[in-house]
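Action item from last week, closing it out:
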Amino acid sequence: MIKEDPHMSHINEAFKNGKALIAFLTTGTPSIEDTVRYVLDMEKAGATLIELGVPFSDPIADGPVIMEADVKALKNGIHLPQVMETVKEIRKHTAIPIVLLTYYNPVFRYPADRFFQEAKEIGIDGVIIPDLPGEEQQEIRPLADENGVDIIGKKMTLLGAGGAATAILVQAALDGVAEINVFNVRDNFFGRAEEIVAKLNERTSCKVTLHDFSDPEVLRASIADSAILVNGTSVGMAPKTENTIITDTTMS
C-alpha cells in the first residue's frame, strides 16, 4: 500500500486502481529512438508508470542485466543530458508518469538545482537515487519539493519476515527505499531476518531495522511515518489470509 503524498499526485495516478504496472527501461539501449518507441508500446500494453534508468558506470545497487544495459547505453554516448532529451521526446506523445532511476553523481554534476528545474519543465514526476540515503537527501529535497518532483526512496514499514516478506525487503532495499522498518514476532524467521537485515545494511544504502511486536506504539509510529506500507504476513497464505499476525486494529 502506498500512502497518499502531496508531492506524488501524478505518480499516484498510476495507482488509482489500487496497483500499478511499472515498466523499466535503461535509456538509450539499444538507442534513444527505440527507448521512445518502447515506452509508447508499453503504455499501450497496459503500463501505468515508466521508470527510465540513467546509464551509470558503477551501478552498485543494480543486477547484471541492468549493468549490461548501462554499458551498452554508455557506449552509445547516453548520459543524463541525453536522458533529459529523451524525456522531452516522450512527452510529445504521452503524459504517462515518468520516474528516473539515477545515481547521485550525474545529478550533482548537472548540477542539482538545474536538474530539478528542468525535470519540472519537461515532465519528470519523480526520481530514485539508490546511493543517496534518506538522511543525506536533505540538501536536495527542498529543490525537489520546490519543483514538484518526488524523491522516491522514503520510509517503508514491512510487516512480516517470512519468505515472501524477505523477498520484498531485499528488492525494496535494492530499488532505493531509504529506510525500512521490519516487524515480526520472535519466531523461527526472526533469527534469519536478523542476518538478512545485517547484510542489507552492509551492502546497500538502505537503513534497515528489525523490530518485534513487544511495543505496538513503535509499530503505529512507523506506519504513520512511512510512505510505503507492506503487509507481508498474509502473502502466499490464501485462502487462510485470516491467519495474518497483523490485525486491522493493530494497523489502524
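Closing note: The two ends are 13 Å apart (CA to CA).
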